[in-house]
Amino acid sequence: MSVSGPGDEPGANWPGAPGPAMPPMPPTPQSSPSIGKAPRLSAERLLLFTDAVTAISITLLILPLVDLVPEGAAAHDSARKVITDHWRQIWSFLLSFVVVARFWLSHHRTFSVVGSLNGRLMTWSMGWLLSVVVLPFPTEIVGSFGHDRFTATVYYANILVSLVCQAAMPAVIKGHPETLAVDDPSTRARVASDFTEGCRNIMALFVAFALALAVPALQYYSLLLLAVFPNVDVLRKHKGAR
Question: How many CB atoms neighbour CB 116 within 10 A?
Answer without folding.
Answer: 16
